[in-house]
Design brief:
The structure holds two protein chains of two kinds. Chain A has 19 helices and 16 strands. By secondary structure, chain A is an alpha/beta fold. In chain A, the strands form four sheets. Chain A has a five-stranded parallel β-sheet. Chain A has a five-stranded parallel β-sheet with strand order 6-14-7-8-9. In chain A, strand 8, helix 16 and strand 9 form a beta-alpha-beta unit. In chain A, helix 3 runs antiparallel to helix 9 and helix 10 packs parallel to helix 19. Chain B is α/β, with parallel strands linked by helices. Helices cover about 30% and strands about 30% of the residues of chain B. Chain B is built from nine helices and 16 strands. The radius of gyration of chain B is 18 Å and the shape is globular. Classes of the chains: A alpha/beta, B alpha/beta. The interface between A and B is large, with 42 and 43 residues. Bound molecules: flavin-adenine dinucleotide (2 copies), iron/sulfur cluster (SF4) (2 copies) and FE2/S2 (inorganic) cluster. The site of one iron/sulfur cluster has 15 residues of chain A, from helix 7 and helix 9.
């Protein structure tokens, strides 16, 4: 151990180059600019190539981390990406958005004594390298089985299922409600954190493998699950995400200037409203912006507001810093960009003018009490601590729920009391024959990598079904 | 791509009809449902009600008033051109039931939305009187179609240039006074629906209106289309667009419709300048 401590101290983590906070806070370009080959190899050499690697246990899909890192050390980038792809179809995405500090990097032995190996940065590097220098060679495909599979939703979980099943020789079609595929990766996570060209390339990769993508297809409306079966699909995967915005039900919530994070981010990302009026979709430009919530969605909203020219942006969160669910890097980046954290603060009502526009909100200070069911200390209001905050734009990012659009049209599929789809945990099978589900519509809002893991599991089960039976 | 197979200008070019190839939607759509259209890559997603559908031909028909940049862009599309995206059918279908005597009131392009509903109400056996209004004769649309879709058509113009001189509400009130009306359906500008609902409330006649808040996805995912119905927040794209007219907070809707007014005016102005320069 002393040896490791010594090594960790002498050999600090190679920092990721980034745009200057002042500059990037006003543009939509990606914040971290990526390692060079030299930096990547230097960082890769920090890995101790553990025999029993903790990092792999921390990764929800069990990426062979020392394995792919060793390829980098050897300078074999083609080998590195092919090794990564075995467990993770979207390394360019995961390297950027996984909460590494509680997953792979959180379990890295080097991290016990210093900073962990930058696994996410390295994963990203491999994928970016392949995109820029790779041969674009497609993986081999099994002979065609003639079996047709429908994938509903093109988020990370649907994309994973499609990718896995197409190489197994099945005929796969993705049905997506929006006019563009990618799910949260295109409508939610902003350009400055995950460039849309990367997502487009991943989708294009699947298309080159033969996956058909039908956009503008709202399953449950344009076509139902049963109709898909009638059309000849033999298996269906439902990965429609958790697309139902939650509001706080406070007085004044329908004033102009109060938007769900879903709406705000969809306007900004999917509709590219930050380029308005060069594109046709407008987005409200707040001067003093308040964002409610402290997860990734809240950080993305706050940083978007800053880039759209806000003078002040505040995150209002009722618990303390320790409970903020966002990735550490996002909180850090947000603060560097000038976003204020108003912690232990809870809004109580919105204030508006005669035109029905938001002018401010009333907040209440909180203190931490006894731990609640989630084990986190429960915030309790401090009596008489109300105060007013001026704001002309408020983004509500306090979570999302199950959108009932598809499930309410599918009576023979069991849901839990919150409206999420009930599945068999080992296979992803729903209670409706021939239908699997996974990702946020099963677990509730979670992470990209968990949605992909669920997709992989279901793809294996679907393959078994198509070749062996239900 | 969704090709335009028929295009017609109405009211001197301020209202446009497009018949569009969209076979999947045409097969599924019911009266009262809408689609979201996007003209091109950089376009906005615009909700429009289907005024008609032809499942055999695989087409849907939309009728829209040119009010801003996006609808101006739609107007410039010709037969053979395509919309890049058409999504639907969205929203709940109208509940069509035989109740007896029904009045359908339409104003402006609301008449286009009202048309399939009126026809549906007649088909299930109701006695349908239709009242349509416009500011003047030239702005009146679908007169012949509405005549066919109902048993009795009354026309009003604000300036008296055609039909009854005055508002649709006056004619409606006369019919309500005669008694026996079981349902009123009102679709048009928000102030019109508000006025109709206020009167029918006094007569205690159930009233259905179709709301048109600003939308983005149309699938219940953004909450931009929030409306207050009986004190409760609803999403018009999935819970509506039709609601009990007596429960709607119209003043809130009017304010919410103006959310982007300044930006839109500027965007439309720029578009017109560029187009006129060509
Ligand atoms: C703003 C934001 C930031 C986030 N940041 C992170 C992060 O940093 N790290 C991380 O790990 N996770 C993050 N997440 C969470 C992560 O994105 C999700 O957990 C993940 O995308 C879920 O994947 P999914 O495939 O289940 O669904 P989604 O990505 O939600 O995709 C579902 C798709 O299905 C489509 N769909 C819905 N209904 C229908 C229908 N009826 N018919 C057809 N298509 C339909 C939707 O349009 C959508 O495209 C973030 C989420 C958001 C919103
Ligand atoms: C479910 C639904 C069905 C609709 N059906 C029809 C239809 O069949 N025919 C038709 O002509 N219109 C219909 N509308 C209204 C239509 O969507 C708007 O007129 C259109 O979005 C305006 O876009 P624009 O860019 O041309 O104008 P913008 O530049 O966006 O707006 C111009 C002006 O119109 C107002 N406006 C903006 N959005 C709306 C809106 N959603 N509704 C009303 N006014 C708005 C603005 O306040 C602004 O002053 C419907 C709306 C909804 C929600
Ligand atoms: S997929 Fe995510 S958790 Fe797994 S190794 Fe990569 S970055 Fe870490
Ligand atoms: S735990 Fe850390 S040092 Fe060990 S293999 Fe994993 S990344 Fe390398
Ligand atoms: S338009 Fe987004 S929820 Fe209705």
């Amino acid at each position: 151990m002393a040896d490791i401590a010594e090594k960790a101290r002498k050999n600090p983590r190679v920092p990721m180059p980034e745009q200057e906070p002042k500059v990037r806070a006003r543009n939509f370009l990606e914040v971290p600019t990526g390692y060079t080959m030299k930096m990547a190899q230097e960082e890769a050499s920090r890995c101790l190539q553990c025999k029993k690697p903790g990092c792999v246990n921390g990764c929800p899909v069990g990426v062979d981390i020392p394995g792919f890192i060793d390829f980098i050390v050897q300078g074999d980038m083609s080998g590195a990406i092919r090794h990564l792809w075995k467990m993770n179809a979207l390394p360019a995405v995961c390297g950027r958005v996984c909460p590494q500090e509680i997953q792979c990097e959180g379990q890295c032995i080097v991290g016990k004594k210093g900073q962990p190996v930058a696994i996410g940065n390295l994963e990203r590097f491999c994928a970016d390298y392949e995109r820029e220098h790779g041969t674009g060679e497609l993986p081999p495909k099994q002979p065609a089985t003639g079996k047709r599979v429908a994938v509903v939703g093109s988020g990370p979980s649907g994309l994973t299922v499609a990718g896995d099943l197409i190489v197994k020789g099945h005929d796969v079609t993705i049905f997506e409600a929006f006019h563009k595929p990618g799910g949260v990766l295109v409508y939610g996570i902003p350009e400055f954190r995950l460039p849309k060209a990367i997502v487009a390339q991943e989708v294009n990769f699947l298309a080159r493998l033969g996956v058909k993508v039908e956009c503008n297809a709202v399953v449950g409306r344009t076509v139902s699950l049963d109709e898909l079966f009638t059309e000849g699909y033999e298996a269906i995967y439902v990965g429609v995400g958790a697309g139902l915005p939650k509001f706080m039900n406070l007085p004044g919530e329908n004033l102009v200037g109060i938007l769900s994070a879903n709406e705000y981010l969809t306007r900004a990302n999917l509709m590219k409203a930050y380029q308005y009026p060069d594109v046709d979709t407008p987005i409200p430009h707040g001067k003093n912006v308040v964002v409610l919530g402290a997860g990734n969605v809240a950080m993305d909203s706050a940083r978007t507001a800053m880039r759209l020219g806000a003078e002040t942006v505040k995150i209002v969160y009722r618990r303390s810093r320790d409970e903020m669910p966002a990735r550490k890097a996002e909180i850090h980046h947000a603060e560097e960009e000038g976003i204020e954290m108003c912690l232990l603060t809870n809004p109580t009502r919105y204030l508006g003018n005669e035109k029905g526009r938001l002018t401010g909100m009333e907040c209440l200070r909180m203190e931490l009490g006894e731990p609640d069911a989630s084990g986190r200390r429960r915030p309790i209001p401090i009596k008489g601590s109300e105060y007013l905050v001026d704001c002309d734009l408020c983004i509500v990012a306090v979570g999302s729920g199950a959108n009932p659009l598809l499930t309410s049209e599918t009576s023979d599929m069991q849901l839990n009391k919150w409206g999420y789809i009930v599945t068999d945990t080992a296979t992803g099978k729903t209670t409706k024959k021939g239908v699997w589900a996974g990702g946020d519509i099963v677990t509730g809002a979670a992470t990209v990598i968990l949605a992909m893991g669920a997709g992989r599991q279901a793809a294996n089960s679907i393959h078994n079904y198509l070749t062996l039976g239900w | 791509m969704f090709k335009i197979v028929r295009r017609q200008e109405m009211t001197g070019g301020t209202v446009i009809l497009n018949e569009i190839e969209a076979p999947l939607i045409a097969k599924k759509a019911r009266p009262g449902q809408f689609v979201i259209l996007k003209a091109n890559e950089n376009g906005e997603r615009i909700p429009l009600t289907m005024a008609d559908t032809d499942p055999e031909k695989g087409t849907i028909t939309i009728i829209y008033m040119v009010v801003g940049k996006s609808t101006a862009l739609f107007r410039d599309l010709q037969v053979g051109d395509s919309y890049q995206d058409v999504i639907g059918p969205l929203g709940k279908a109208t509940h069509l039931e035989k109740v007896g005597k029904v009045i359908c009131v339409g104003g402006g392009t609301g008449v286009a939305v009202l048309h399939p509903i009126t026809r549906g109400l007649k088909e299930v056996g109701n006695d349908v009187t239709c009242i349509i209004g416009a500011r003047n004769k030239d702005l009146l649309i679908l007169e012949d179609e509405m005549k066919k879709a109902s048993h009795d058509l009354r026309v009003c113009t604000d300036d008296g240039s055609y039909g009854h001189h005055g508002f649709v509400t006056q004619v409606m009130q006369e019919i309500l006074d005669a008694g026996g009306v079981k349902l009123v359906v009102a679709i048009g500008p928000v102030p019109m629906m508000k006025a109709v609902s206020k009167i029918t409330k006094d007569y205690n006649v159930p009233t259905m209106v179709s709301l048109n808040p600003i939308m983005v996805d149309g699938t219940g995912m953004c909450g931009g289309c929030r409306v207050t119905i009986g004190g409760e927040t609803k999403f018009a794209c999935v819970d509506g667009p039709e609601f009990d007219g007596h429960q709607v907070d119209y003043d809130e809707l009017i304010k919410r419709l103006q959310a982007y007014q300044e930006e839109e005016r500027e965007c439309h102005r720029q578009y017109c300048t560029i187009r006129d320069a060509k």
